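Title: Prediction job returns without error message
Component: structure pipeline
Severity: low
Priority: P3
Assignee: unassigned

Description:
Job completed but the reporter wants confirmation the result is attached to the right record. Sequence as submitted:
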Amino acid sequence: MEEVKPFIREVILEDFMSHEYSRMRLKLGLNVILGPNGAGKSSILVGISLALGQSRTERSRKLSELVRYGRDQARVTLLLDNSGRNGRKPLPRLGEIIRLTRVIRRSGDYWFEIDYRRADRLEVVSMLKELGLNPDNMLVIMHQGLIDEFAVLSPQERLQLVEEATGISGYRRRLERALARLENVRAEEREKRKQLEQLRAMEEHWRGLYEKIQERRRLEEGLDGLRSLLAWARIAKLEENLERARERREELEGEVSKLGEEAGRLGDELSRLRSELESVLEEGGKDLRRLVMGMVDQIAYDSAEKAVVEYRASVAREEAHRIGREERRLETELSELKELVGEAERPEKVPSLEEAEGEIKVVEAKIRALGDIPDDVERFYTDIKVRVESVGDRLRQLAENKARLMEEIARRMNVWRREVGRLVDDVNESFRHLLSSIGASGYIKIVYGESPSDAGLEIYVGFKGSNPLLLDPYRQSGGERSTTVTAFLLALQGKVLSPFRAVDEFDVHMDPANRGELFKALHGMFKEDRSTQYLVITPGYPSYVDPDAQYLVVQKVEGISVAEEARIHG
């Protein structure tokens, strides 16, 4: 079996608080520091915790106040074990002994050193985690007064400290990360639903405009058809007018022809009469005057009639010419309209010109009634529809993610509760046994809430035969609280995953009997588990002495603290 070595091999204090120079070896198992009040015992634990990177000092003192009076600088050095575990070192790049130092100057400056090389706190904490230590966990290093502070912690804070110290906090963290992811999904889902609601309102607005523009296009297409019908109506009207003009022209030309014939006939008749008149005049006779007068009257009448016929023929001819010109105009207009409609098929039924124009006016009025519509309506409406669809797809994806996360959370919740339950069951057994050894009774239990952050660890204790009551600052005395917390910490001892643990004056308020029993239990635990280094600071002489433990006595000589190993006999 591989030899286990102490986490801290040596502690060196130089001009730190009341220590001028103190060098102390610590062994594996239990190390007990004894000494009267004010001797400088607690200074040793303060120095260790500061060198380990703990984020606060005893009683929240300023770091510069920890430099020994009259000196400018203090140094705390820990020699940490980095020897091989199962054939390999935890930190392969460093030696078997790591020299971890914290330097504090009265000016307020301070820094860390790892093997004489400057380092920051992040590097120190990271290195210590590789070695298995979290110095900021209250259950790892408990300064003077933290026993009482632990007693007043909320159940939620206690449970989280216990989970962290016992190495099962990963279950909570993974569960909380899953819950955080679920909350992120729900937050995004709420945001997307709100966004979808806004988009749908916008979609409704643009749909109305889009439908208007579609209606306008439909009307405009219908208007194009009506205009085509109007052209055919005009063609039909022109053809009708052209046909009437052509008939009228032909009628007038026939009339002109007839009148010409009549004028010719009258002209021939006049010529005959004139010839007869000339013959009568040549022959003479008694009836000459009467005959001449009759012929003259006939000639005058025929001449007048001929003139009328010729005038009527002239008027008819002029009207025929005018109608001919109108025909040509109508033919030109008809040709242009036919060219306009092109090869479009002539409708079976062509409305009248008045009907076509009336229908066009109705459609144009409907188009005007739609009002002004932006030209980019379709682009905006299409864009909104795409965005609505995209957000809808994302919401469906989020619903799937949420369902998967809820399944994952249910699994992780069961695992976390199972591990916490196992821990509490194991610790409860030891806790009850320890309390029983001092004539007390009690138990611990987990209370769950809606989320892991609501879950807490409650401690119940009863002394002198009383029923167990919830541990708080009011129900128990100071000694009872110290005894209860110490019993709980001892019961937890075997579960804490840390190579080093320390507690300062846990027994300060205890009565002698309880103090002796708990010291005895403490020694008994370290006989069973020699893998952890434990440092206990106590102001009095131990009521129980373990020959396997190491005892260091701290005294103050002429204002300077001196620490040395001592042999204590029981």
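Comment from assignee: result matches the submitted record. The first helix runs from residue 41 to 51.
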